[in-house]
């Protein structure tokens, strides 16, 4: 049975963490992907900062061999990254353990990761790798998909659960809708795209955690 686990690490423990030194207010979100040696977390969003400013900072990142700007929305951009496989760190641990990254969000304080593993040994392998390489990680919650807990029920993170419940209680799912993404995002004081991504991931995890999708 698949297992969902969440971890947090200090901002500087992840290769993109240096960006927060220049832009402490930004948020970075990694697109969901199954990492491989050839495609380690290839897509990421950088929000709340003009894209041209972020590009200058990315050029100074040693862990990136190259990057491509995929989508420029002014104060947020989608980038495709090619990581340097010779730079060992937390990315190596994710790849070696064959973990699926469901979500990863970074702020100046920390990175929060949500992983899916087909076997709990993968989680243990990742933890062992981090311990061996002095990478400080904090385990949030861990549970099998379908198991119910007060925190992280059905594979939702606390932020995703908050977004789904807020949308439901405010009539977002009614016909016609009684609210929109912009109003919901404003209530949580986050960017529209950030709320949209959080709601989309939460809905996906809710479906996977309650329905037989195999």
TrEMBL record:
Residues 156-208 form the HTH bat-type domain. Coiled coil: none annotated. InterPro entries: BAT_GAF/HTH-assoc, HTH_bacterioopsin. This is Helix-turn-helix domain-containing protein. Pfam families: BAT, HTH_10. Residues 25-144 form the Bacterioopsin transcriptional activator GAF and HTH associated domain. Keywords: Transcription, Transcription regulation.
């Amino acid at each position: 049975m698949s297992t969902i686990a969440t971890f947090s690490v200090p901002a500087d423990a992840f290769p993109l963490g240096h960006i927060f030194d220049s832009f402490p207010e930004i948020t970075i979100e990694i697109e969901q992907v199954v990492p491989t040696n050839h495609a380690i977390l290839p897509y990421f969003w950088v929000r709340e900062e003009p894209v041209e400013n972020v590009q200058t900072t990315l050029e100074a990142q040693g862990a990136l061999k190259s990057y491509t700007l995929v989508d420029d929305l002014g104060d947020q951009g989608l980038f495709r990254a090619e990581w340097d496989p010779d730079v060992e760190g937390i990315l190596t641990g994710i790849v070696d353990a064959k973990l699926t990254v469901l979500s990863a969000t970074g702020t100046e304080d920390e990175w929060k990761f949500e992983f899916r593993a087909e076997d709990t040994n993968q989680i243990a392998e990742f933890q062992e790798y981090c311990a061996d390489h002095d990478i400080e990680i904090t385990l949030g919650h861990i549970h099998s998909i379908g198991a119910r807990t007060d925190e992280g029920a059905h594979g939702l993170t606390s932020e995703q659960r908050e977004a789904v419940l807020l949308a439901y209680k405010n009539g977002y799912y009614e016909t016609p809708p009684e609210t929109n993404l912009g109003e919901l995002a404003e209530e949580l004081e986050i960017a529209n795209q950030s709320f949209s991504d959080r709601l989309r991931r939460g809905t996906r995890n809710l479906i996977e955690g309650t329905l037989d999708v195999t």
